[in-house]
Amino acid sequence: MTITLITGANKGLGYETARRLIDEGHTVYIGARDIERGQKAATELGTRFVQLDVTDDASVADAIRTISDAEGRLDVLVNNAGIGDSRLGIDSVNGPAALTTFDTNVVGVVRVTQAALPLLRKSANPVVVNISSGLGSFWAVTNPDRHESHTCLVVYGASKAAVSMLTVQYAKAAPDIKFNAVEPGYTATDLTAGFGGGRPVEESADVIVRMATIGQDGPTGTFRETAGELAW
Predict the structure, then answer these.
(1) Residue 225, strand partner residues
(2) Which of 190 and 132 is assigned the larger pLDDT?
(3) Where are the domains of the chain?
(4) Cys-Cys with 81: which of 7, 55, 99, 117 at CB 3.0–4.6 Å?
(5) CA angle, 10 as apex, 8 and 16 as ends, to 5°?
(6) Catalytic residue chosen out of the listed positions 59, 123, 133, 164
(7) Of residues 132, 137, 160, 204, which has the active-site annotation?
(8) Active-site residue, 178 included
(9) What is the average per-residue pLDDT within 86-107?
């Protein structure tokens, strides 16, 4: 049985990824800040819930301890929890908002990954999937053929570029674990509700599920989207 933890999984992409991985036979722990919403999602999915706030060291430690006590290892970690810029444009940028975004999107990945490393190293095939974005790809945001080049989310894009770099650095620092970043695509979720549009979560979750189910010969240190590898 594959033991999987997905952060920010009570709704949206995290929820759909959990549903798909449960169908693949994984034992999935969904992490969420809100206990009521997290428990409701776990009940709907028929899976397990851990209270997990990626901005809180104690919350992260408690969640990992719960999984350790119950399972003794962790095979797959999906760092999905994240927040976005509330508005387009430079006028919405300020220091406190930037700190909040980076604390969730970037430092949160570090908190959870570091706490999970001992459990991941007890797996025969440890895998970490970091949810990044094409808005964090230097290639995509400077390529006029890509929609990312026409969208300006200053802090969110910078935070996702940091997530991608974390992925590369972790892949080098921990070669016994496969680390990959994914761009799920512009998706209709609460994160994008203020902008409109977006494709269904069922479509965007494909690349996350694909990278969460790679075998021992799977890649590490890569950046993937639905169509294949994405340039950094």
Answers:
(1) 228
(2) 132
(3) 3-229
(4) 7
(5) 95
(6) 133
(7) 160
(8) no
(9) 86
